[in-house]
Amino acid sequence: MSQAASPSARGMTDRAEEPAPRQQDVRDRAAALPWTGRERLLLAGIAVLAATMYGWEAAHADYHGFYAVAVRSMTTGWRAFLFGALDPNASITIDKIPGFLWPQALSAKAFGFHPWSLALPQVLEGVVTVLALNSACAAGSGRRPGCSRPGSSR
């Protein structure tokens, strides 16, 4: 075989072709892109829609009477709040860990004891869940799934 016919004579090297970018690299680059104004506006719209849907009929929300009584008594003092008391003297406590009623008790303390004030913490928790799910999907897929068109990479 002559020198002119060999690959190295034509200027080609023996190394392999450059590998295609890995999927993880593409995800990292897409996740590092700053949020555009359109994406922020869409995400804010999604959050408002979630708040509206979670809060719909919150003024007429049903609540469990046993735990509503505990929430009402938890607003009377810090000792009752800390231990989840059923009575204002904090001598009788509820049968579960009182931490699950703390958001409702704080809401009732701030806004008064109403059905909507007991439902308000669940509305806020639902909106935070929607935003956290968007962040988790964006981290896993490398794009803003809730704010992008189907099939687009951005």
Strand content: under 5%
> Tally the helices: what do you get?
6
Order of helices and strands: HHHHHH
Give the C-alpha Rg.
28 Å
Q: Would you report the number of β strands?
A: 0
- Spatial gap, N to C terminus: 51 Å
Note the main sheet.
none
Determine the fraction of residues in helical runs and give it as a percent range. Answer: 40-55%
Instruction: Enumerate the spans where pLDDT stays under 50 for 5 or more consecutive residues.
Output: none
Helix/strand/pairing class, anyone? mainly alpha
- Estimate the global geometry from the Cα principal axes: elongated
The average pLDDT value, as a whole number, equals: 78
Number of separate structural domains: 1
Task: Report what the structure shows.
The protein is mostly helical and 154 residues long. It has one domain. The protein is 53% helix and 0% strand. It has six helices and no strands. The radius of gyration is 28 Å and the shape is elongated.
Strand and helix layout:
Blueprint: H1 23-32, H2 37-55, H3 65-74, H4 78-83, H5 102-111, H6 115-141
Helix pairs in contact: 2-6, 5-6
In short:
This protein has 154 residues and is mainly α. 53% of the residues lie in helices and 0% in strands.
Defining key terms:
about 150 residues; about 55% helix; single chain; 6 helices; mainly alpha; elongated
